């Protein structure tokens, strides 16, 4: 699709006519009225196919309060509309209502018809399959997972901190550093971290490869896995040229159990070794540093446990919140 073919589109989120601007990619192409970007419109496009088997704008969805739906930090552009359509809850890692997708022990499993996770699973701590397995547990059999993560078509995933264990972020004069104490007690320090926009824990933990991602989704007990890589210019979904990071939909297979949740990474062969050369245009890899700066960061980390990304205090707060909110 090129600009001369379509100068206008109808935003499937707000229903208004908007103009095609040059920067159409998943994080661009904002609707002039509601600000929805291509990623949001592509998600709701895939959702309309699930319910209606064809492209339907959100405004034409039939409200159905029997549909129990959840979002993980969903954008307000569509979360507010889903809230009017379904029995929908938008959960957050750092705000109420809380949900850590890697720890669902206080959640009602097998109760959701729909789970939307858009650009979340690149931020969860390793091992990366846990979030997908937990998504399977939360859904009903036949329930839909709608997923986006940034991913490449490289052969392997780039896992930035494969030995992440006890870690924290420290800031010095030059910027932010990650300090990690491995299980073997050795301490490593990383520079050149990548942060994504938005509130909460937005440290990029990895850049998936599509092949790795699809294998993990399948092993987590999902079927009918579909990659929504086509354009739909009528809704302002112009993305085919971005070469990855498309919306993925998958259905919970109720007749299968997912791969076991383990502390080690069962997909270790799917990640690049730490010293492998990776395309710098596709992936910004953090670098391990040593020397004086690293030493200072380690002692700073030991001194200021308060800047832990996941402090004991916030864990307790979240636990109490779940326990007493009902
Ligand atoms: Zn719009």
Q: How would you characterize the overall build of this protein?
A:
Helices cover 21% and strands 23% of the residues. It has one domain: Vaccinia Virus protein VP39 (Rossmann fold), CATH 3.40.50. The protein is globular, with a radius of gyration of 20 Å. It has 326 residues and is an alpha/beta fold. It binds zinc ion (ZN). The site of zinc ion (ZN) has 8 residues, from loops.
Radius of gyration, whole Å: 20 Å
Order of strands, main sheet, comes to: 4-3-5-6-14-13
Tally the beta strands. 15
Q: Report the top-level CATH class.
A: Alpha Beta
Q: What's the helical proportion of residues? A: 10-25%
Poorly predicted ranges? none
Total DSSP helices: 6
Please give the domain count: 1
What does the secondary structure layout of this molecule look like, with pairings?
Layout (H helix, E strand, L loop, with lengths): L7 E3 L6 E3 L18 H15 L15 E5 L3 H10 L1 E5 L20 E7 L10 H10 E10 L2 E2 L5 E2 L6 E7 L2 E7 L5 E5 L14 E4 H10 L2 E7 L18 E6 L34 E3 L2 H12 L8 H13 L2
Parallel strand pairs: 3-4, 3-5, 5-6, 7-12
Antiparallel strand pairs: 1-2, 6-14, 8-12, 9-10, 10-11, 11-15, 13-14
The structure holds zinc ion.
């Amino acid at each position: 699709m090129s600009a001369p073919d379509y100068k206008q589109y109808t935003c499937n989120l707000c229903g208004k006519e908007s103009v095609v601007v040059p920067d159409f990619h998943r994080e661009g192409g904002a609707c002039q009225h509601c600000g929805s970007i291509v990623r949001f419109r592509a998600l709701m496009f895939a959702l309309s196919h699930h319910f209606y088997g064809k492209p339907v704008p959100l405004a034409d969805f039939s409200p159905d309060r029997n549909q129990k739906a959840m979002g993980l930090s969903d954008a307000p552009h569509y979360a507010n509309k889903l809230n009017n359509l379904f029995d929908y809850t938008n959960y957050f890692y750092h705000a109420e209502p809380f949900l850590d997708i890697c720890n669902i022990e206080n959640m009602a499993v097998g109760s959701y018809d729909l789970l939307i996770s858009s650009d979340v699973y690149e931020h969860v701590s390793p091992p990366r399959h846990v979030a997908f397995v937990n998504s399977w547990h939360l859904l009903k059999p036949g329930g839909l997972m709608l997923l986006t993560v940034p991913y490449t078509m490289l052969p392997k995933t780039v896992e930035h901190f494969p030995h992440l264990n006890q870690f924290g972020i420290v800031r010095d004069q030059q910027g932010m550093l990650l300090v990690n104490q491995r299980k073997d007690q050795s301490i490593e320090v990383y520079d050149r971290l990548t942060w994504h926009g938005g509130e909460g824990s937005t440290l990029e933990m990895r850049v998936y490869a599509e092949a790795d991602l699809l294998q993990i989704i399948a092993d987590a007990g999902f079927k009918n896995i579909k990659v929504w890589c086509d354009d739909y210019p009528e809704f302002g979904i112009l993305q085919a040229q971005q070469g990855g990071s498309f919306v993925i939909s998958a259905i919970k297979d109720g007749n299968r159990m997912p791969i076991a949740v383990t502390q080690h990474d069962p997909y270790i062969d799917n990640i690049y070794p730490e010293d492998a050369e990776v395309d710098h245009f596709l992936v910004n890899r953090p670098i391990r540093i040593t020397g004086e700066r690293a030493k200072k960061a380690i002692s700073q980390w030991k001194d200021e446990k308060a800047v832990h990304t996941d402090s004991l205090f916030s864990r307790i707060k979240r636990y109490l919140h779940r326990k007493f909110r009902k």
